Amino acid sequence: MPKSSPFTGQSTMLRRLLIGLGVLVVVALLAGLTARLAGGGHRTPSAAASPSSPSASATPSTSPHGPGPSPSAGSTPGASVVAAPPHTSDPIKFATAFATALWSYDTRTATQPQQLAGLRSWLTGESKYADPDALAAQLPDPVLWSRMRDNGQHATGDAAEAHLPAAWQQAIGKDPSQLTVAYVYAVTVTGKQTVSWNDGGRGAEDRALTLAVQCRPGRDCALASIATTVYP
């Protein structure tokens, strides 16, 4: 199913999400609550503004990495700079943990490829549901990341609340059986991101995003996509 197909109506969010992930129309009608869920963006305290980073979670909060040598541009990507996905079958707990990991970063100790590689470890292994492009869109590009590193910019995220959006619940409520096709849940997370930089600079901003989380029975939850719209 093409990503560009227009949809309207009560289940627009549900359609967009799974249609964007290449899922069958019947699933999209009920499970596509978010078409590339997108969250807030990083902002540099200097002249340059940086795209948003991950949303925070209320439970597992990732603390910023301590000061360290600036990474070289050719550093090998690795998942160690980002918190590992939690072992949970609860989409709410998974979403808050991911938001925290997304909104937490340290340009002083990690390159952009390393940060992205770590976040990609949260994606579902089912390729037709995984949306790596939506995830990559949450990070500054490598050039902007290096400018943020020049400022010593680092941040921590803290999620205050997470819930299943009303529109998603209403759509699934009309035909619960459709959830069993892909087991994708929409979860909206809100919180705050605290950013620090050289010379004692510090600031905080509210963050919110809607995630598509896949939680199949007997498996840990995994990220499917991130919407471009935050759904209440």
Compact description:
The protein is an alpha+beta fold. It is built from 8 helices and 5 strands, in the order αααβαααβααβββ.
Major sheet characteristics: 5 strands, antiparallel
Q: Approximately how much helix is present in the residues?
A: 25-40%
Strands ordered across the widest β-sheet = 1-2-3-4-5
Instruction: Give the end-to-end Cα distance, rounded to a whole number of Å.
Output: 26 Å
Q: How would you describe what is shown here?
A:
By secondary structure, this protein is α+β, with helices and mostly antiparallel strands. About 30% of the residues lie in helices and about 20% in strands. The chain contains eight helices and five strands. A five-stranded antiparallel sheet has the order 1-2-3-4-5. Strand 3 and strand 4 form a beta hairpin. The chain is elongated and about 55 Å long. The relative contact order is 0.26. The N terminus is likely disordered.
Give descriptors for this structure:
232 residues, alpha+beta, 5-stranded antiparallel β-sheet, 19% strand
List the helices and strands and how they pair.
Layout: H1 12-20, H2 25-31, H3 91-103, E1 105-106, H4 112-120, H5 132-136, H6 142-150, E2 154-163, H7 166-174, H8 179-182, E3 184-197, E4 201-214, E5 222-226
Antiparallel strand pairs: 1-2, 2-3, 3-4, 4-5
